């Protein structure tokens, strides 16, 4: 197990800045998730940790030891790829044992008969055989040890790739979107499996994904990236409840956090023609904005739908209703206030409200949206940064 420290790490590909200037400290035994949209630099960062990509500047320390100038083999990190990278002509047993066999590598391992016999001997040695059996048991692969990768399902292949990483007992596991080739159901099952693996074997995990659900459910901490810059580094809960800026607020959560334009005045927030008292902490944060426009960040489940004409709420018209089992997600186009939902696919002026059960509302229905401000947050309209 080992802590990881990144000190002003940057990566440039010619004129392209893939990683701007990253400082990050990951504790021993953490499950760090690097999260962000395609092209944000998360794979590049992981590859620099592994030594598969050089750093343009900065330092990487593993367990207090500087490693950025060391080759991958000297870093004690195991990499699990999206494509699994299993050897198709080797059994599951040999695939898992492979790193242990290669530890005792001799040049004549390449020779057809002698090399084959030598590898077999190592594979059958009590120490290696025991470790492979033990690893297979943890990953429920015992029955499959003598099969070939092509006869396994995607999830089973993924487990073999994990097994191959585990036998090395590395200080750090690096995983680049390991579940993205699996169907939705298997992905959910493997998510739990990797979390359990982390709990059982310990070790520091660094896991790259663009899937916020994976990040929220697996990570002890998440580094949310955009354009080579970390937008926020925190626990899933911190990132969900206290997003550092509007980008994080809109990236995390389904549906994303609603951002409604308003103005703070004497401990209240004015949203169009409606004035609502702010909780004390929010009123204090709002004061820092002075007379500037702010954005009220509020989650869909802190909003409630009422009959039209209700007091203390925002008037709007239902534009879409999605039934998702235990609840319905209702899109409401507000009539008097503006939103800051300007990313692709978002409709300006439209907010999302969750209603429990099967909502009978239909597009075109007039409603009043009530707001529970106890868990709301405020952002600066001009910078997008959360006001505290
Ligand atoms: P994805 O989820 O699509 O894999 P990512 O967040 O992992 O994306 P990276 O693969 O790290 O992103 O790429 C970050 C940026 O650096 C991208 O703009 C990419 O085009 C660029 N990049 C990556 N590798 C190279 C390279 N070898 N040469 C030039 N540019 C590169």
From TrEMBL:
InterPro entries, alphabetized: AAA+_ATPase, ABC_transporter-like_ATP-bd, ABC_transporter-like_CS, ABC_transpr_MalK-like, ABC_transpr_MalK/UgpC-like, Mo/tungstate-bd_C_term_dom, NA-bd_OB-fold, OB_MalK-like
Location within or outside the cell: Cell inner membrane
Keyword entries, A-Z: ATP-binding, Cell membrane, Membrane, Nucleotide-binding, Translocase, Transport
Membrane topology: Peripheral membrane protein
CDD domains listed in its UniProt record: ABC_MalK_N
GO biological process, one term: carbohydrate transport
Keyword Lipid biosynthesis: no
Domain ABC transporter: 4-252
Pfam families xrefs: ABC_tran, OB_MalK
One of the record's GO molecular function terms: ATP hydrolysis activity
Coiled-coil regions, chain positions: none
GO-annotated cellular components: ATP-binding cassette (ABC) transporter complex, substrate-binding subunit-containing
Cited SUPFAM superfamilies: MOP-like, P-loop containing nucleoside triphosphate hydrolases
Keyword DNA-binding listed: no
Main location: membrane
Family affiliation: Belongs to the ABC transporter superfamily.
Protein name in the entry: ABC transporter related
Organism of provenance: Methylobacterium nodulans (strain LMG 21967 / CNCM I-2342 / ORS 2060)
């Amino acid at each position: 197990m080992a802590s990881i420290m990144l000190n002003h790490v940057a990566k440039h590909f010619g004129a392209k800045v893939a990683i701007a200037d990253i400082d990050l400290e990951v504790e021993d035994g953490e499950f760090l998730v690097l999260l962000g949209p395609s092209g944000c630099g998360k794979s590049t960062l992981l590859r620099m940790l592994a030594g598969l990509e050089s750093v343009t500047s900065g330092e990487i320390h593993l367990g207090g030891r500087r490693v950025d100038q060391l080759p991958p083999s000297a870093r004690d990190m195991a990499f699990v790829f999206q494509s699994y990278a299993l050897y198709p002509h080797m059994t599951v047993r040999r695939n898992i044992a492979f790193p242990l066999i290669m530890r005792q590598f001799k040049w004549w391992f390449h020779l057809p008969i002698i090399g084959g016999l030598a590898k077999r001997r190592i594979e059958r040695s009590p120490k290696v055989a025991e470790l492979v059996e033990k690893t297979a048991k943890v990953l429920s692969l015992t029955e499959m040890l003598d099969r070939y990768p092509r006869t396994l399902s995607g999830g089973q292949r993924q487990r073999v790739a994990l097994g191959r990483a585990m036998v090395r007992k590395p200080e750090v596991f690096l995983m680049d979107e390991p579940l993205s080739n699996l169907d939705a159901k298997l992905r959910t099952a493997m998510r739990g499996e990797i979390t359990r693996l982390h709990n059982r074997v310990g070790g520091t995990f660094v896991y790259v994904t663009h899937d916020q659900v994976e990040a929220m459910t697996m990570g002890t901490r998440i580094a949310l990236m955009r354009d080579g810059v970390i937008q926020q580094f925190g626990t899933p809960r911190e990132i969900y409840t206290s997003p550092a800026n509007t980008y994080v607020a809109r990236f995390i959560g389904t549906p994303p956090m609603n951002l409604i334009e308003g103005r703070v005045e004497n401990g209240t927030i004015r949203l169009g023609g409606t004035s609502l008292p702010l909780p004390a902490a929010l009123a204090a944060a709002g004061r820092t904005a002075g007379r500037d426009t702010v954005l009220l960040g509020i989650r869909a489940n802190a909003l409630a739908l009422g009959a039209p004409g209700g007091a203390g709420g925002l008037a709007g018209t239902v534009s879409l209703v999605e039934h998702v089992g235990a609840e319905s997600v209702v899109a409401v186009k507000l009539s008097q206030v503006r939103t800051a939902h300007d990313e692709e696919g978002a409709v300006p002026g439209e907010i999302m409200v969750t209603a429990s059960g099967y909502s009978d509302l239909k597009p075109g229905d007039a409603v009043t949206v009530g707001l529970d401000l106890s868990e709301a947050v405020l952002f600066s309209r001009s910078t997008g940064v959360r006001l505290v």
